[in-house]
Structure formats: structure tokens, C-alpha cells
Amino acid sequence: MGKDPKRAFGNRNRAALGRIYYIDALVRARTFPSVARLVEELETSRRTVERELEYLRDQLNAPLEYDRTQGGYHYARDFQLPPFTLSEGEVLALFLGTKLLSQYRGTPYEKLIADAFEKICLALPETVSLDFSLVNQTISFAVERPRGDEQHLLHLQELLGRALRERCTVSLDYYSASRDADTSRRVDPFHLRHHQGAWYLIAFCHLRREVRMFALDRITNLRLTAVRFTPDPDFDISAYLGDSLALERGGELEEVRIHFDSFQARYIRERQWHPSQEIDEHPDGSLTLALRVRGLGEVKRWVMSFGSRAEVLAPEYFRRQVGAEVLGMAGTYGPPTVPF
Predict the structure, then answer these.
(1) Contacts of residue 282, Cβ cutoff 8 Å, sequence gap at least 6
(2) In this predicted model, what pLDDT tens digit does every residue of 111-141 receive, in sequence order?
(3) pTM exceeds cut of 0.85
(4) What is the pLDDT of residues 68-79, one digit of tens each?
(5) CA 263, CA 11: separation in Å to the nearest integer?
(6) What is the domain extent for residue 127?
(7) CATH classification of the domain holding 161
């Protein structure tokens, strides 16, 4: 007695269902997909593709056969997958993600995004529907375009994607903006991070003998080497960036205390600025925010973005640094000519 395809299908996770619908669409279209083609297009392992083909044939009773002449799979007779449904929330999430990515239209990323979305659409059942026109009118995103030359960034990301997959050491030429100097490095790539429109490579630097961060738009040249490295089992991206306000690292872990007046305090309360934060409320509606962080350069820029409504209380040397920056700004702008 054959298995119940509908029941078996309902037990699959969404990722597996997507792969199965994609394979089914190619087979029904008589494109005769091979395992090698499916591995490349689904960006997964050969074993995963073979498992999904076995699942189609053995669990869903698909008349799946291999055609040696065509070098790929086809259905020996008519076959229809059991339907599966997406909730409206899942369809909405899919649409919003696509809308967010679509704002890279006109950049070198557009074709990659379009190809990915085409794969997703092939995997979706025809019965899914949502009033996209209404959502399109009522929801939008402000997305920063990538910093730097987009064709160059895309080339670097393709090389680094391969290096990350194959654990391959890379050689790069890098411009350090802080030192206004060019250096050549060999690094072991660990992670790619996007932040405020810029891409960063986090890697072990052979020159400095420690994990460093490199802005991709400052990498002038990058080459893969034949050297393979063993990943550091203790490296964790969350732990690596956990003591930073955003990205900047360096220096000792310190407690920074900042007083916000009653007006700005309303907005400070609304967000979690850092996992370590503690808030001390004051009777006049103001508050003091305490953070345990490294990389006080970016903390200084953040504090100064609030103008006179924020005051650094500690550490003392950091308070003096911010004060010196404020005095320098006053020298640049001169005394105010209009009241605040």
C-alpha cells in the first residue's frame, strides 16, 4: 500500500518544500534537470538534491525517471504535487523582503535579486494570493545604496563568497583611511557584515596576528590563494561585535554614562541601544544611560548627534574628548547669531 503523499508532504519544512516545488516545476516543464544543475541552481549539496529526488519518488509517488538521452529527470506520466498553503503573514513577509531588495534596482545586484525571486516564485503554489497593490501603496523602505563602486563590490563579494565556502586564505591590497596608507595583507575570511550602506569583511589578519575588520570599498585588489585554513572554533560574530555600539572595536571595555535631558529622554527610552544598557530615571524626566562598550570613537559620534541634549558624564577622559570636539566646532562656526 502506497504512502499518503498529502500527509507526508505536510511534514516537510518550508525550505525542503521550496526545493521540491522548484524541482517539480523544472521536471514538469520538461527541461530535464540533472543533479549537477539542481545543485548549482538551488545552491545546496548533492546529497540534499538526491534526498529531495528520492522523496519525490518514494514518499510522494512521483513517476520520476532519469532519461539518459537528455541527461536529466522527467515524469513518465502526468503528476501533480499535493498543494501546500502559505499563511497571509508568510506571503506578506515574502513580498516585503522582495520589495526591500528591489530598491537595489539599477545596481549590479538587480539580476541576482531577480534570479533569486524567480526561483522562489517557481516554488510557490498558484493558489497563494494577497492584495500586493495595497501593500505597495502603504509600505516602503529607505535603503542606503552600497558604499563604493558597485561592480567592484559585487566582484569582491563573489570572490569572498567562494573563499568563505572553501575556507580559502585571500591576499588583498587595502587602503587604510585612518592612516592614509596602502598595505598588502593575507587574511582568513570569517564573516561578511553589512552596516549603514557599507560592507565589511571580518577576517584573521596574518600581518597583525588578530581578527580585523576591512571595509570592502577600501579593498583595491583581492586574490584567492591555494592555502586552506581551519576556522577558529571559538570565533563567534555575536561575541566579536557584542562589546561595540555598532562595529568599532578597540581599547578596554569601559562603562560610559550619558545624561539625556527630559526632551531627548522620551526617545532614548524607546530603543534598546546596546545589550548592556542600564537606565537611571530622574525626577525631572531626564535619564542617565549607562553602556559597557569598546570603540569610543563611534560612541562619541553617536553622542554628538544629539547636540546639547546629551552630556557625557563618564569616563572623565572621554568627557574631555567630547568637550574638546564641541569647542572645535564652536571655533569653526563662531558664536551663534540667532537664538536656539
Answers:
(1) 288
(2) 666 666 666 665 555 555 445 455 556 666 6
(3) no
(4) 999 999 999 988
(5) 53
(6) 88-138
(7) 2.30.30
